[in-house]
Amino acid sequence: MSLTKTVEIDKIEIVNKYCVQVRQKTTILENDNEISSTFSRWVITPGSDYSNEEHRVQSICKVLHNENAIREYKESLNKPSLDD
Amino acid sequence: MPLTFNGSGTINLGGWSLSDNNSNSSSTLDDYEEGTWNPYWSSPSGTPLFAGNPSQSFGSYYQKIGNMVYFYSYFGHLNSTVTYNTGITASTSAGISGFPYVSTGYGAVFCYFYFNFVSWDGPGYGFNPMCYIESGTTFAYIGYPSTGQYVYAGAATFAGSNSRCMIGGFYITV
Prior knowledge:
The complex is a heterodimer. Chain A is of the alpha+beta class. Chain A has one domain. Chain A contains two helices and three strands, in the order βββαα. Chain A is elongated and about 55 Å long. The mean pLDDT of chain A is 91. By secondary structure, chain B is an all-beta fold. In chain B, 0% of the residues lie in helices and 49% in strands. Chain B has no helices and 17 strands. In chain B, strands 5, 6, 7, 8, 10, 11, 13, 14, 15 and 17 form a ten-stranded antiparallel beta sheet that branches. In chain B, strands 1-2-3-4 form a four-stranded mixed beta sheet, with no helix packed on it. A three-stranded antiparallel beta sheet of chain B has the order 9-16-12, with no helix packed on it. In chain B, a hairpin with a 2-residue loop joins β14 and β15. The two termini of chain B are 31 Å apart. At the A-B interface, β2, β3 and α2 of A face β5 of B.
């Protein structure tokens, strides 16, 4: 019997035009059969540091998080819609 | 009523269904997930207030049922002091980032800060904060009522050891 643990980004989604939603799956395998798994999630918003993200996530952020996206996102935070 | 499987990812359970396809039916559960997340204090743009001192989670969990996200966290920072010079405006306030999904509507956040956790640019210790997650973001503003208005809590100084925060709530996502 061999137990192994794998950690991988198993889902990358783009939500609300430019927010990159990431899901990490941690799996415990016994003889290559999954016996347990857990998820962890986070979101990378325009302007956030993504230098420590997995290379696929970085590639997507590089394309999406251009100056316009960063400015638009910051403006939405600078003036919350509840203030309208 | 028999349990039936239609062969395309939907299980019919009498009056309701489980489906792995997006459904517009109000009697179909088309998504479920649970996991962990990592909240942290930040500016609205997501810049951590405690740079180099990651938040310490004592349990941060979420459950997504359909398009509703329920979350809980007990987290803090040990031996942290940071001065965050702000005014009390939305763009310069301090709040919480790291939510597991992008909010697509306003989210309700219930929170409790340990006494002596933070000195605010607002009411003194022990005030009852009002928090919400802004639509389209993963940021929770923190504020308080003042003369009938919602005032953003710009934090002057986050200081002290054993700072703790408990939050929970829910919001809509896609």
